């Protein structure tokens, strides 16, 4: 049973790793780099908290 | 056209794709306690080898003080600097870019090495349970790291929902073990007065207590990881202090129960060398149910820790990319799952490589060293934060009491811990110090030219006092 579990772990690892690589390729070829890297730090805070100098 | 439409649907904050704000205080608790709780199942007990059972209890309390200071300081600063990267974003705004770069590396090293340790522990635990000749831990290590990376890739909400459930089961197993051994009655199952006597309580004297600090860190290592969720919690100013402090209280209780049960069931000579103190305690009760429960709980605690570590290391790496401290390629957010998917994928083979080639003790030591470097920074950071922005000048979600006492206590305990690490792993300590020094030179003289200096400071704060 344990050896079967060990082989199943290898199988699951390979399948999920391949899926992530496929999804990565799909996303990178579908969206522009500007969109994917458009996240900016602290945007919500800039809206909700204003401090006077 | 279809792509453009999808982009509009998935984007928030105008035309940007950002991390998703979906988490609450329970997720923050699950992230912090999930990373740490594995330390009760293995790690803390090596402090008994360094200084005896009583030394393990003393460091449980004293290191508990260190981490309470960490939790209080972290809660105050993070409730104000609510950004992914946690202590990295704090360092950037309060100390400066070079400190921030180093802190981010401390974070990535601490969490990746802890993830590696967790995966090795999980694999070794299964192999020990199976007792089958020819069965190795490699497949279980690979599955742990890849499945959890996939979970993190698919979204933070499910990742931390899973962490909440498995952390809660592992925690409840400690409580069940504690009440199953009649803790109020010595002699029935527990034999603390026979196992810990005035003659063997501190076999190496007080220097043994100092040496025990190195592994005492494992009682609470990683609770500061809650801050990495800052950009994904719905209400950072409320959720982060609440989740972090609740997590610290939970861990103090778990640490005390764990020491009491284990020290009352095993002699310090064995307790200090076993890799499975709680699982062994379950076996020693003679109950098959408790033995199996603690076996499963050990696996779940390792899984929860590795899961939280992948989450935190990826966000620290992502933040470095977003500020151009590393190539911006790493700052990509998945438009559907809203996760830092490239950072997750980049760190995946690194974790796998270390897990297959590194020794558990080496991985643990690198993780602890990076963690203690980070705590030392935090004690300096809070002093500068209060000096530059005194109370009343900016809004804080939480204000920690007795300042500057927690910062001073934290700094002093970090110095003691560095000395303890030097006693056991002096060469690694020196090697890591040289590594951070060289990488700092690279950042200062080469990489910083690519950073857009005005863009990196995003908090809308007033000018600091004295500037």
Description of the molecule:
Chain A is mainly alpha-helical and 53 residues long. Chain A is built from 3 helices and no strands. With 467 residues, chain B is mainly α. Chain B has a single domain, classed as Amino acid/polyamine transporter I. Chain B is 68% helix and 0% strand. Chain B has helices at residues 2-10, 25-36, 38-41, 46-51, 53-78, 87-94, 97-130, 138-154, 156-180, 192-195, 205-216, 236-263, 268-271, 277-284, 288-322, 341-357, 360-388, 405-445. In chain B, helix 5 crosses helix 17, helix 8 packs antiparallel against helix 16 (341-357) and helix 15 crosses helix 16. The longest helix of chain B has 41 residues, at 405-445. Chains A and B meet through helix 1, helix 2 and helix 3 of A and helix 8, helix 15 and helix 16 of B.
Main beta-sheet annotation of chain B? none
Structural class of chain B: mainly alpha
Radius of gyration of chain A: 21 Å
Give the strand content of chain A: under 5%
Number of helices of chain B: 18
From the N-terminal CA to the C-terminal CA of chain A, the straight-line distance is 67 Å
CATH class membership of chain B = Mainly Alpha
CATH superfamily of chain B: Amino acid/polyamine transporter I
Fraction of helical residues of chain A: over 70%
Which word captures the global form of chain A? elongated
Structural class call of chain A reads: mainly alpha
Task: Look at the structure and give the mean pLDDT of chain A.
Answer: 84
Tell me briefly what this model is.
The complex is a heterodimer of chains A (53) and B (467). Helix content of chain A is 74%, strand content 0%.
Strand and helix layout:
The complex is a heterodimer of chains A (53) and B (467).
Chain A: H1 2-30, H2 33-36, H3 43-48
Chain B: H1 2-10, H2 25-36, H3 38-41, H4 46-51, H5 53-78, H6 87-94, H7 97-130, H8 138-154, H9 156-180, H10 192-195, H11 205-216, H12 236-263, H13 268-271, H14 277-284, H15 288-322, H16 341-357, H17 360-388, H18 405-445
Helix pairs in contact in B: 2-9, 2-12, 2-15, 5-11, 5-12, 5-17, 5-18, 6-7, 6-17, 7-8, 7-15, 7-16, 7-17, 7-18, 8-15, 8-16, 9-12, 9-15, 11-18, 14-15, 15-16, 17-18
């Amino acid at each position: 049973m344990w050896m079967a579990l060990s082989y199943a772990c290898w199988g699951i690892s390979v399948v999920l790793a391949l899926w992530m690589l496929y999804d990565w390729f799909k996303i990178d070829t579908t969206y522009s780099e500007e969109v994917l890297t458009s996240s900016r730090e602290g945007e919500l805070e800039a809206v909700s908290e204003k401090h006077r100098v | 056209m279809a792509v453009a439409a999808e982009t509009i649907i998935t984007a928030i904050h105008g035309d940007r794709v950002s991390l998703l704000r979906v988490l609450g205080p329970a997720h923050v608790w699950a992230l912090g306690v999930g990373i740490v709780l594995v330390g009760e199942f293995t790690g803390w007990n090596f402090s008994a080898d360094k200084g005896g059972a009583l030394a393990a209890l003393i460091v449980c309390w004293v290191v508990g003080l260190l981490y309470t200071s960490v939790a209080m300081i972290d809660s105050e600063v993070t409730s104000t600097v609510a950004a992914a990267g946690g202590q990295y974003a704090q360092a950037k705004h309060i100390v400066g870019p070079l400190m921030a770069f180093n802190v981010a590396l401390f974070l990535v090293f601490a969490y990746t090495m802890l993830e590696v340790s967790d995966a090795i522990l999980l694999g070794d635990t299964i192999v020990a349970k199976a007792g089958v000749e020819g069965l190795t831990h490699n497949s279980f290590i690979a599955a742990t790291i890849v499945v959890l990376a996939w979970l993190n890739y698919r979204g933070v909400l499910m990742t931390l929902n899973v962490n909440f459930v498995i952390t809660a089961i592992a925690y409840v197993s400690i409580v069940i073990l504690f009440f199953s051994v009649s803790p109020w009655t010595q002699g029935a199952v527990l034999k603390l007065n026979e196992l810990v006597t005035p003659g063997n309580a501190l076999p190496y004297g007080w220097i043994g207590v100092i040496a025990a600090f190195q592994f005492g860190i494992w009682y609470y290592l990683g609770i500061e990881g809650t801050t990495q969720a800052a950009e994904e919690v719905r209400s950072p100013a409320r959720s982060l202090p609440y989740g972090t402090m609740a997590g610290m209280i939970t861990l103090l209780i778990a640490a005390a129960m764990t020491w009491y049960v284990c020290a009352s069931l095993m002699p310090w000579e064995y307790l200090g060398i076993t890799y499975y103190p709680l699982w062994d305690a379950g076996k020693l009760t003679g109950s098959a149910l408790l033995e199996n429960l603690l076996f499963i709980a050990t696996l779940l605690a390792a899984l929860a820790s590795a899961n939280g570590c992948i989450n935190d290391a990826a966000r620290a790496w992502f933040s470095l990319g977003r500020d151009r401290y590393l190539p911006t390629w790493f700052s990509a957010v998945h438009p559907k799952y809203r996760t830092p998917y490239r950072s997750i994928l980049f760190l995946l083979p690194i974790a796998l490589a270390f897990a297959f080639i590194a020794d558990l003790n080496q991985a643990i030591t690198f993780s602890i060293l990076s963690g203690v470097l980070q705590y030392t920074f935090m004690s300096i950071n809070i002093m500068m934060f209060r000096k530059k922005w005194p109370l009343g000048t900016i809004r804080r979600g939480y204000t920690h009491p007795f300042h500057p006492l927690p910062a001073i206590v934290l700094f002093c305990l970090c110095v003691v811990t560095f000395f303890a690490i030097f006693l056991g792993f002096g060469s690694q300590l020196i090697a890591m110090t040289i590594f951070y020094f060289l990488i700092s030179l690279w950042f200062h003289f080469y990489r910083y030219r690519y950073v857009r200096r005005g863009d990196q400071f995003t908090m809308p704060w007033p000018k600091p006092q004295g500037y």
